[in-house]
Amino acid sequence: MSFFHTKIENLRGVGSQRATLLQKELNIFTYGDLIQRYPFRYLDRTQFYSIVDLHEELPYVQVKGILRNREVVGEGPKQRMVAKVSDGSAELELVWFKGVKWLQSIIKNHQEYIVFGKPTIFNGKPQMAHPELEEVTEAKPGQSFLQPVYNTTEKLKNYHRIDSKAIARLVFDLLKTALPHVQESLSPALIQHYGLMSKAEAYQQIHFPQTPELLQAARFRLKFEELFYVQLKLLRQRDQRKITLAGQFFREVPTLIHFYKNVLPFDLTGAQKRVIHDIYKDFCTGQQMNRLLQGDVGSGKTIVAFISMLMAADNGAQSCLMAPTEILADQHYVGLKAYADLLGLKLGKLTGSTRTADRRVLHEQLRSGEMHMLVGTHALLEDVVQFRNLGLTIMDEQHRFGVAQRSKLWQKNPNVIPHVLVMTATPIPRTLAMTLYGDLDVSVIDELPAGRKPIVTVHRYDANRLKVFQFVRDQVTLGRQVYIVYPLIEESETMDYKDLTDGYESVARAFPEFQISIVHGRMKAEQKDFEMQRFVNRETQIMVATTVIEVGVNVPNASVMIIESAERFGLSQLHQLRGRVGRGAEQSYCILMTGYKLSKDSRTRLETMVRTNNGFEIADIDLKLRGPGDLMGTQQSGVLDLLIADLAKDGRILTESRAAAQQLINADPGLANPENLNIRRHIASLPATAVNWSRIS
């Protein structure tokens, strides 16, 4: 067993009770877990403020002075400890509401202290609540001016005195014995090429940096290594799959050529042609295709999917397209059936509401091979759905399907795994795509079809509502349709945002001459479909809805999207909602309505929406604002288990580390060369279940 597998209770100052708490609260079980529990920020303890200069705008600061007038004030739950500190320029009041008994035993009157905390002004005088105190004589761990601050929990801090400083002391003690046991896990060539600090030195400097420059070098080393191993793992998985998993050859494309020349009523964009070329190349390799297709709403992914299905049909294979909702499946089916009929190909549809009698016929046609293509929802996954020769599976908005569901689809062909095309209209920032989908080949459709005009987006305050309503009236009079989206279904006591029910009533009052649809998530599926269908058929002119329309209906005639309380929505959600309009040839508009009170992040989101229609630029800003965990609807650590790297900020390091991993695989796929011994040994020491290969093993 390695040194870093040693249980944490063996460390001086821990013991069994503290060990249980560290395990429960911070997931620290071993020496390895503790040494890789990195500080989240550092305090520069070189700078002192005079008390007379303190004001509320300052961040956490430190002052030095004599503590006096220490006393306990109040009774019971309102009891608090109050003290005054003077540095000769003025007096600062200190107050603690918790741990009063403990503080009484350690705080001394007439002692000189360094006080660290966030200054506020209370009754016109400077005050600090719950500051850190340090006797001027006390030595600091590591004697570093940049002091580490570690994440801890309220339970650890308030009841067990395991605050950031206590963790710093444990790390300081551990480093004294741990550093000789740290094995280098990168090759000498990589260390030299990227000018990396040694791993042992990086651990020392990340916890107790001697200078800001050494801290930066330690961070770069540890981030590079972490991302390098993430990419190495993904690229090896991709290459391994290409070696082990065969795919059907789809080389013959006579129907496709006829489709281009005689059936397709418009020209494909350059981006669409490029993606189709990528897919055709995959089909000719004899290896299973695993490709992610990214493209903004309305960029023409569905026609690319259909062309891929044609290639399969031309080579005697069947294909299926799975969508997350019935509405989306219907939309794909209606859009593609006209083409399939003209080409003499059989295209079927299978959803939860397909009648039993129709299902029997459909199942028979799939088994016999009479049906070439199938569009549907989760219903495609049922065991009874069997194909004669499934060669291609396409998933639309795949993040809505679990891994188990996807693999179930691939098992529909026992002889050879089908090719896989995954489509998404949610623009994924490049850094996230390289990491979450790093084992897939990625294609991007980054231009809109000819004739599409960019959507004009404006931000309007509630005070301008009458003008906005007049604009709606003008648009409907021109024959267009309008969406109005609200963030909530019913009025909430905690939030005074416009709710859907109120909204519907005020819209109905404002436009008595128009027909209005209402759609929200609590309606039954058939009610929702009925209302959506009325809007599609132009029986209603205005659709009042919650975000359920985010993915779904394609209504080329809808030209205005009004988003109420727009500050309540995330950036990618705003972009998805905006994509519901702008699908026809007419100029479309998106109007973001808000009150005057907006946070800094809300302003950034609204300004971004007004400034650009580029989904990838929007996704990058969204990643910076929200972080990768939120963005994928799953915690970053859950998917990637990252310890120090941040996909929102470390794009450059990620690109470099992926290039380094790719270079290594190209030069030495089996990691057999002597110079790669460190990397080979490190991977071999990891458990098979390891998610993050850079963790100490």
From TrEMBL:
User: Which keywords appear in this protein's UniProt record, sorted alphabetically?
Assistant: ATP-binding, DNA damage, DNA recombination, DNA repair, DNA-binding, Helicase, Hydrolase, Isomerase, Nucleotide-binding
The catalytic activity of this protein is classed by the Enzyme Commission as 5.6.2.4
Question: Does the entry feature the keyword DNA repair, yes or no?
Answer: yes
Stretch forming the signal peptide: none
* PROSITE patterns the record matches: HELICASE_ATP_BIND_1 (PS51192), HELICASE_CTER (PS51194)
Give GO MF terms, alphabetically.
helicase activity
Entry's InterPro entries? ATP-dep_DNA_helicase_RecG (IPR004609), DEAD/DEAH_box_helicase_dom (IPR011545), Helicase_ATP-bd (IPR014001), Helicase_C-like (IPR001650), NA-bd_OB-fold (IPR012340), P-loop_NTPase (IPR027417), RecG/Mfd (IPR047112), RecG_dom3_C (IPR045562)
Top-level taxon of origin: Bacteria
Where the record annotates domain Helicase C-terminal, the positions are 470-629
Is Protease set as a keyword in this record?
Answer: no
What is the enzyme's class at the highest EC level?
A: isomerase
Q: Which reaction does it catalyse?
A: Couples ATP hydrolysis with the unwinding of duplex DNA by translocating in the 3'-5' direction; ATP + H2O = ADP + phosphate + H(+)
A Pfam family found in this protein is RecG_dom3_C
| Domain Helicase ATP-binding positions | 282-445
Q: Per the similarity annotation, which family is this?
A: Belongs to the helicase family. RecG subfamily.
Main function? Plays a critical role in recombination and DNA repair. Helps process Holliday junction intermediates to mature products by catalyzing branch migration. Has replication fork regression activity, unwinds stalled or blocked replication forks to make a HJ that can be resolved. Has a DNA unwinding activity characteristic of a DNA helicase with 3'-5' polarity.
Full protein name:
ATP-dependent DNA helicase RecG
The organism is: Hymenobacter fastidiosus
